[in-house]
Amino acid sequence: MIKTIRDAEQHLERGGVPIMKKLVSMLLALAMVLALAGGAMAETKDYSGYTIRIYSNSNSTERVNWLLNAAKEAGFSISIDDNSVISGDNAAIQKANESKDGDIIFGLNEVRWSQLVNGTYENLTVMDWTPSWADKVGAYVYPGKAYGLVVQNILMLYRTDDLGTNGEELHFQHWADVVDSGYTWYRQNKVGGTTNSNINNAMLYSFTDPTSPAGGISVEGWKKLWQFCANGVSGGNDYKYGFIPLNRGDVQVSMYYPSSLYGSIDSAADSSEHPLLGTTEPENWGVVDIEDGTYYIAEYIGILNREGRTDEETEAVKAFAEWFGSAATQAEWADEFDSFPCNEDAAAEIYGDDIPVIYTIKNFSLNNVPGTDMNYAEYVGAHSKEWTNIMTNLGFYWADASQAPAEPDWDNVNWAVMTQAAQ
Description:
Low-confidence stretches: 1-43
Shape: globular
Number of helices: 14
Oligomer: single chain
Order of helices and strands: HHEHEHEHEEEEHHHEHEEEHHEHHH
Helix content: 25-40%
């Protein structure tokens, strides 16, 4: 019986037809490759019989359409709302908690994931699971529960031309040092929003004080944040994010998130007479060198326990999570949406050794907060509601300058009241 290529070769040799040896060897090799490929395809299970319900805040129309199509090609059927239906991390997790029909949550940030993993939400629990790529995401992991997909930070940018610093390089020790820099800066015009929260988290990092009744932040920290707000430039609804005023030359320093930076610079001339130039090699802009580093958030993926889901359906959900977080899929996702993957193999596939400088900034989110057993991301999670209440109650980030409130009498603020939601 002929079982291998060598068997076929010997058979031909014994039959006196060595001239056909090479040709038949090639044909048999091809047949074996096709047989192996066919076997591999047969082993790839079609999970499309179960529709996997997904909740996410990483759900722009473009992302949702891409994921729907890619998942279908991979053998999955999924259901996910875009941001016209669910907008923001809070909306995503609240909707999942109310609906109780979720199989997967991805996106969010460390604050929300800490809450989710620790059982903050009445109807949401995260299933135990460990994907094959768990050891590829570094520190971005809640062991046995959730694993990093995308990491993103908040950037402080500045112009280096005559509309900016005239060639002076900016170096700060802390984010809040911008207030005393002598330059003009953009500030947001509302308390809420993921990017706005990340700016605040970065600004408050150097003022943590676990003993402070002011939400675990020193009063000096709140004073500094008030100055950032009061003296910053807000364009009302004209500035959706910080790129616009910097690109126009309305401010010299601004804040922006990296996943849209290069694309925004590519099209900067479409919306400015004095655009930022040089996408990956800046010509008239730079990233402020801040000794502390910056605040990072990571988006994670986790599998939710769902009442009534069968073992076979759970298998489909786990297979989807395995596929989506894999290096191959995350490399495609990162390439499509200019994000930076937590999966080191995906990052290597996209960038090789040329990691963009905007992703090499020190990450202080994972630094320990003195006097606690928490890192800064966990500290933010523990105090974020208090910070939101303080900013709301004291009137931070007004949109209309004519309606600006008076600066609080800091010596007489009742922090026990200010840290609570307004009644």
